[in-house]
Amino acid sequence: MRVASIDVRLERRLAVWRGTALLVTSGSLLLALVVGGIFLKLTGHPPLDVYRELAKTAYFNWYGFTDTLGASTPLVLTGLAAAVGFKMNLYNIGAEGQLFLGGIASAWAGIAIVPGMPGPLAVLTVMFAGALGGAAWAFIPALTRAYFNTSEIVTTLMFNFIGLYLMQYLIQGSYSYWRDPKIVGFPQGKEIVDAARLPHWNFPADSMFGIAFPPGRTQVHLGLAFGVIAALGLWVLIERTRFGYGVRVTGDSPAAARYAGISIRGSIIVVMLISGALAGLAGAGIVAGQGYKLDPGGLAVALGYTGIVVAALARSNPFAVVVVAVLLGGLRTGADNMQSAPDNLKIPVAIAGMLEGAVLICALGGELFRTHRISVRRVPSNSDREEHLSGAVGVGVSP
Amino acid sequence: MSPGDLASALPMLRIRGVTKSFPGVVANDSVDLDIRRGEVHTLLGENGAGKSTLAAMLAGLYRPDSGTMVLDGKPVNFANPREAQSRGIGMVHQHFRLVERFTVAENIALGDTSQPWKLDTRALESDVQRIGEEFGLPVRPDARISDLSVGERQRVEIVKTLYRGAEVLLLDEPTAVLTPQEVDALFVTVRAMRESGKAVVFISHKLVEVMAISDVVTVLRAGKVTGTVQTRDTNQAELARLMVGREVELSSLRAMGVRGSALLSVSCVGLVASKRHVLRDISFDVHGGEIVGIAGVSGNGQRELAETIAGIRAPSTGSISVASQSVGGKGPRKTRAAGLSFVPEDRLGTGLAPSMSIAENLLLTRPRSLFISKRKVQAEAAQIIADYDVKAPGPDAVTSLLSGGNSQKVLLARELAASGDGATSNHVLVVASPTRGLDIGATESIRKRLDDLRQRGGAVLLISEDLEEVLALSDRVLVIYDGAMVYECDGASADRTTIGLAMAGAIATENSGHV
Ligand SMILES: Nc1ncnc2c1ncn2[C@@H]1O[C@H](COP(=O)(O)OP(=O)(O)OP(=O)(O)O)[C@@H](O)[C@H]1O
Ligand SMILES: [Mg+2]
Hints:
The complex is a heterodimer.
Chain A: E1 2-3, E2 6-12, H1 18-42, H2 47-58, H3 62-86, H4 95-113, H5 119-148, H6 152-173, E3 200-203, E4 207-208, E5 211-212, E6 216-221, H7 223-240, H8 242-252, H9 254-260, H10 264-291, H11 296-299, H12 303-313, H13 318-337, H14 350-371, E7 372-378, H15 385-389
Antiparallel strand pairs in A: 1-2, 2-7, 3-6, 4-5
Chain B: H1 3-9, E1 13-22, E2 25-35, E3 40-45, H2 51-58, E4 66-71, E5 74-76, H3 81-86, E6 89-92, H4 104-109, H5 121-134, H6 150-163, E7 168-172, H7 180-195, E8 199-203, H8 207-213, E9 216-221, E10 224-230, H9 236-244, E11 262-273, E12 276-287, E13 290-295, H10 302-309, E14 317-322, E15 325-326, H11 332-337, E16 340-343, H12 358-362, H13 374-387, H14 404-417, E17 428-432, H15 440-455, E18 459-464, H16 467-473, E19 476-481, E20 484-490, H17 496-503
Parallel strand pairs in B: 3-8, 3-9, 6-7, 7-8, 13-18, 13-19, 16-17, 17-18
Antiparallel strand pairs in B: 1-2, 1-4, 4-5, 9-10, 11-12, 11-14, 14-15, 19-20
Helix pairs in contact in B: 5-6
Bound molecules: adenosine-5'-triphosphate (ATP) and magnesium ion.
């Protein structure tokens, strides 16, 4: 594109400065809001007021913010599940199904094996069962990928559907061990024992840090701590351990891994198992922290797929996953909470999903600007040509 | 003066004050360069001097930060390689950019926007044929790239640029991957281009070639032009001096100490890969205090042999031992632990993880503890940068952004470090084309280090297509042909003609007959 004698074009950045990544990500988020705003305007909602209300109910209100943290907890874990795979170019699309299996396994543990156990042990057992369930669901795709090079994208995706129908069958389609036989009418899951339930954080007093809080129970439960610890653990594992080094080498160049004697198969299997375990933990957190039973409706809300969005936006950095999960969790909470807002601000819940999509698309578009820069340069126009021929040096300026 | 003389006297491409910086380095520092029609112009310089960067700017891959480039009187400012190509500047990279599954003709048409939407294969093939005949580039338009040798692929790349109307051809280290016969063929083409009034920019570290083919040589040092000389007025020694700033003489180095016990024993090794016998019944020993060279035309099993010895492949038959420990098929880590290190032919991507830093790459072949410590390797990386004169901003520099020669130095340094720094060593080093792409100063220093390992009692297996190098360093020379060892002789008294014949398969010993 030429504008007068100014030449504007895209040029590949040679080194990506860390700040650029942050700037581009924020820019993409802003653009997504603009796109969403246009949509809101078209459907007859005042965008600015909607956003203000959304922000208020999701982030700038203590109940809203704690709701957001609660909603973000599974996203942190599914985000990490996707991120760990990205580190070695493995695309585990199956966090969704692994989360269901985590839910099934933890509900079973909560009903069958923990009664009688002391509280902390019961909680740990239930969460462990969830991780195990998720990992088990990732195991077959891991094996086929490692030994037959079958695309894990396809296998894990298919396992999502098997997991979904299995979960629905257990509650709605049969009188299984998970279903509560006492409830007639709408089928529901059996509740897990009290000791296995994740404690919620409650405002201890009506004032903290000098700020007045309404006392009471919040949606923040111990699952969030599992998420944050998992993020920390994952970072240490990938950046600071021998195993993580192998994963990074394999992701960078399989030939170099072979040369170094790093087991590519082993890395694939272990990374897939870790990914599945994290997604399974997310399911366990929902069972043991929110519903206290296996509830297909509460689990099948695309948390696994949203985790992929979270990991992509966070560029698979575990700490960024936590931040992005909270941002996206807020969208969900905000849209939910606004159902009680005045009529003109009452937006469809689906708007949260739409904004999520807009954020992803803008972020992927923004990726171009992270790796390329716009360069503006003065071009010697035709009248300058003589000057060049006579050997004078024209100097272009690049910003 | 006739009009023709005038045209050739005026430079076709005129570069003034071109500067290009990367984070931490000025790769080109106000470079002036004139390239004339009918001229072969060599860019010469140490590793990291900025030759590839300059060529890449001419080809539209990078844009200069400042300065001007004037082509046939018009200032140019290329946004991408396609734009440069359309103005008649074509480049052949060291790593070819061809689609393996496509035919030669399809590759030539690929990305060419002037092609009609429906490919006229017949016309295309006859054009390719014609260009091939004119410039001495025999290629079969309907051959698949995957069936071609390295030299043939390079020919396809050249035909591709000529087909798109290249008037200036940039060749970045084209001879590094060629056999001597292929180099001769390439030079025939280059001369034909010169005759037809095109310009060729040639990059090479081999001074013999530079003297043989070029008309003008421009020497770069640390991004600056330090001199332009006419080839007929200069000689190799002067070029070396201009380039490194001191006299360099590559002399032969031979064992001086006593030959020790066999540190590497390969016995009756055979390898079957994709149902083909790639190695046949190979047996030899490398003793402490000696360098054994393996000569051969590329593709005769050298790569597989090296990988088998290094434990990356398991031999189908036979056994391998390092310092009397049997290692065949036990994997790279056990093999290394037994005292063997390996410098593969492919550096970036196999020997080095490209998007990792120099420091992190040092960990690739070290025994790693459960938790890795970056601090220790950081210091070691800084030491290597200083000792081997690696042009890099620091230990955290990503290896894929280093110049070709500098990444090779990092790889060699890492593997040589495994031999320890004591007065004696019983380490085995298997090294493929150690000095390919290194400048003459670095070549000398790497050869000295290989020799040093030998004098300390280590064993070196040197695998190279560069016969000069094999002969200059080896105490014994083995020739590999079609997966079998067909000839063996003493390094000092080796006869080039016989070795050449053996490399071409004209001498076959008993053990190559079967299978
Ligand atoms: N894309 C890049 N990003 C950062 N630094 C770069 C990049 N490309 C080149 N450099 C640096 O610029 C300098 C010149 O590199 P260049 O590849 O032009 O050297 P060269 O003369 O071709 O060397 P060699 O003979 O080793 O190929 C080197 O220090 C190199 O590390
Ligand atoms: Mg180069």
